[in-house]
Every structure is written in structure tokens, then in C-alpha cells.
Amino acid sequence: MIECRRISKKFGAFQALGNVSFNIPSKKCYGFLGQNGAGKTTVLRMLVGLLRPDQGEIFVAGHSLLNERQQVQRLCGYLPQRPEFYPWLSGEEFLRLSAELVGVPARQAKKIAGKYLDTVGLADFSRRRVGKYSGGMQQRLGLAAALIGDPPVLLLDEPVSALDPQGRDSMFSLLKKLKQEKTIFLSSHILHDIEQVCDGVVIIHKGQIKAQGTMPELLKERDESIVRAQVHFEVDGGLINRLQAEFSGTLQGIGIPVSNVAWQEQGLEQLFYKVVRQAEEEVEQEHHQHQNSSTGQGGAGDGNMAR
How many helices (H) and strands (E) does the chain have? Predict the structure, then answer.
């Protein structure tokens, strides 16, 4: 559904993206992970046509962003990290305006606005001025605006960053429903939230894609078969010191009955940090190799001059 082919972008001398390629399948929700400044927002802004890549191609539902920009924009709903509003408008007025801007007839715009206000849980605040909305309410209003026109693709930049825990739960419950009929690509710093709702992930580090796919695929690629064992048992308080001293031995060997064993596969957090750590090690190795190469060339040059 979404395909990026070797896209690159520079801002002055800064290389923001370098040969970025990835695919997001149709009607799946993928998380976009990376540290601050890794390039997540730059990629999302490119996907919706707000930035042009210096090179490379972007396709959405088979349409080229380069050659069919307006068609691609009609296919995408976009929620920026910090959505901006006209603070003097009410929530309903803002969505009516948003609906009319995407071609909804004025007589239908009010009905559409009410529908999506209800979808994001703002129906009771439809007449309140947006300037009086909390940060979380504004983020939900931004999602409602992204849903206007019923686009098949949603691009969401940190959609839960301003929400409280209850608001995050509501947002992810909604996204789980939406991904049944839409392709969703969302960035987030909260790895647990990504695990809750996403079918797969794309990991970017310093402008380069380091991993992409479903969790089972990524773990298999890296031969990650490590699991954690969680053991539940009851023990008399007098045995605590003995337990601490002998825990490295077998539990049965000291007479402790095991009542339950639960197995947990490696999670997204461990995978993400491992990918980032490997990327940093690769950069460091390349740096050392470059230094060694430069030193060797310098020595050869000095020898030639001496002769």
C-alpha cells in the first residue's frame, strides 16, 4: 500500500535521510520507531507531499507521489505531531471547514463533522472553541480531521503524545478498529503502545532504515530465540535466606514446589535497543576504518616525500 524506494533528503549540509526504502502492506498498522532526530517526521511529511525527496520514489496504492501528488494526498489522512487550529472556531466548525476543503458539500459537512467528533469522543465538546481544548482534545480533533473524507491511509505522527493514560487506551482501541479497513503508519516513542496496536514496525536510525517487518519476522531474522521464564511459587519466610543463597541450583533441589511457569518472548523494547546498538557499533567501526585508512595513506605519502 505504501512503498518508499531509496528516498534521500538533505537540509543544507545535513543528510536527513539516506536511501530509505520500506513497504507497508494494505490494511495493516505499522509503527515507525526511532530516536529523536532519526528522520521519522521527515518521512511522514514526504509521504503526504509536504516535502519533496532529493531523490527516490514514493508510491501509495500504486500512485506515484512525484507524478500524481493530488491523487496521493486524497488517499491519505495526516495527523502532524503538533496540529494547528483556528482557536476561535468550535470543534464542529473546524471539522465542517475541513470537510468542505476536501470537497464535501456544505449541506453534508455538518453531518460529517458530527460523525467524526463522536468517533474521537468529542461530541460533548462540539461547540467549545478549539482554543479552550486541552492538548489531548486537540490531538483527538486532529485525528478526526485526518479521517474526514474516509481516506484508506492514515499517517499519524506521535498520535498519543499529549494524551493521558485513559486517552491513550481510547485512541488505541479506535486504531485497532480502524486498521481493519485502513492502512495505518504511526510514529511513537512509547514502545509498549506500538506493541499493543501494530502488526509490524519500521526502525529508522540516523536517516537509515535498520529493520522492518512483523515482530516474528524480525526476531527470526536476528535468530532471537531467547525467552524469559517467570516462575510463581510459595515459600515459608524462614527459607528466604536459603533461597537467596541457593537460587542458582534447581528449585526442586531445595524442596520448593513450582506452581506455575509462564514464558514470555522477547519484546519490542529489547529488539529496538538491540537494533540501535548494532547501528551505533557499525558507525563506530566505519569511523575507525576510515581513520586507519587515512593514517595509512598519510604514512605512504610521507615515505614518498622522504625518498
Answer: 10, 12
Domain 2-213 fold is Rossmann fold (3.40.50)
- DSSP states along 8-43: EEEETTEEEEEEEEEEE-TT-EEEEE--TTSSHHHH
Determine contact, residues 43/32, Cβ cutoff 8 Å: yes
Instruction: Single out the residue of 181, 182, 224, 217 nearest to residue 202, CA to CA.
Output: 217
Are 204 and 40 within 8 A, CB to CB?
yes
Supply 281's cell numbers: 557499533
Contact status, residue 219 vs residue 266, Cβ threshold 8 Å: yes
User: Whole-angstrom Cα distance, residue 59 to residue 236?
Assistant: 64
Phi, psi of 149 (to 5 degrees): 90, -5
Sheet of 14-24: strand order equals 14-24, 2-11, 55-60, 63-64
| Residue with grid cell 472556531, as numbered in its chain | 89
Burial of residue 4, with CB atoms counted within 10 A of its CB: 0-12 exposed, 13-18 middle, 19 or more buried: buried
pLDDT tens per residue across all 307 residues of the chain? 999 999 999 999 999 999 999 999 999 999 999 988 899 999 999 999 999 999 999 999 999 999 999 999 999 999 998 888 999 999 999 999 999 988 889 889 999 999 999 999 999 999 999 999 998 899 999 999 999 989 999 999 998 887 888 888 888 889 999 999 999 999 987 788 788 889 999 999 999 999 999 878 887 776 655 555 566 656 566 665 555 555 545 655 666 555 554 545 556 777 777 888 888 888 788 777 777 776 665 554 444 444 3
- One-letter amino acid for residue 264 of the chain: Q
CA 50 – CA 64 distance, rounded (Å): 15
The CATH 3.40.50.300 domain(s) of the chain lie at: 2-213
Helix (H) or strand (E) holding 146: helix 135-147
